[in-house]
Specification:
single chain; alpha/beta; six-stranded mixed sheet; 4 helices; 28% helix; globular
Amino acid sequence: MKSNKTSNKKLYIVRHAKSSWGNPHLSDFERPLNHRGENDAPDMGQRLAMKGVKPSLIISSPANRALTTAKVISAKIGYPVSDIMEEERLYHAPTGTIKTLFSRVGDEHDTVMIFGHNPGLTYLINEISDFDLDNLPTCGVCGIEFEMESWKDIQTTRGHQFYYDYPKSKG
């Protein structure tokens, strides 16, 4: 028998992997991953795959370093790379913008993953969850679970951090 209790929504917040500052002619938006980032992204994707993480929606900043990270991790967890939703507003977005973006996610999506940038992602984690985080490391992943029916409720609902991993952890 099904209960009428509030369903859970899960959000995985992923900071892009380490990026390169090697080409001074590239804009911040165009910067690629550096060697460490190219190694960290598949490693973190593998860790997520081993945990059985299966988002039904992935949203990424279109900045090169974020989108590359999203594509590498998506491939590792079996999410179609062609289905990644690029969202310009995630590029160096403040928390209010990110929360507004989530409030528009369809409620058929119980597990969503986003790829973006600091400091906005660290601020977001602290604002919407019980997790006190100084800095989300590059290619770090924070999972937050919410007891809510609709993503619209993210504006007023605080979640519980249930997952946290980053490349240099013993994960």
